[in-house]
Amino acid sequence: MAKKLVIKVTAGTDARERCSQAFTVAAVAAASGVEVSLWLTGESAWFALPGRAAEFELEHSAPLSDLLDSILAGGRVTLCTQCAARRDITEKDVVEGVRIAGAQVFVQESLADDTQALVY
Which Pfam families would you find in this protein's record (predicted)? Predict the structure, then answer.
C-alpha cells in the first residue's frame, strides 16, 4: 500500500458523484493513517472557498464539508494555481489550511517514492 496518496479532483457540482468519490476516498485514506494530498482543480476549485462544500448535496453520500474537514485535519488540500486565477480566488479567500500551488508541485508529489496518484 502506498504511504502517500495524491488525489486530483476535477469535478464539482457538474459531476457530483465523481466529486464525492474523490473526497470520500481522500477522507477514508486520511482516517486510515495514509498521508493524503487532495488537489482541487477545475470545478472543484470552488470548494476551497468557505461555505461552498456545505452547499454541496448528493443523496447517500457523506456531507462534503465533513469530508473536507477530515481531509484538512489529517492531510493536505491544495488549490490549483491556474484554476484559482481563472476564478479570481486568492490565498486570502480560501478555507484555512488550503494552499495554492501549481503543476510543478503536483508532479513532485505524484512522483515521490511510495506515492499513488488518482484522478477523479
Answer: DsrE
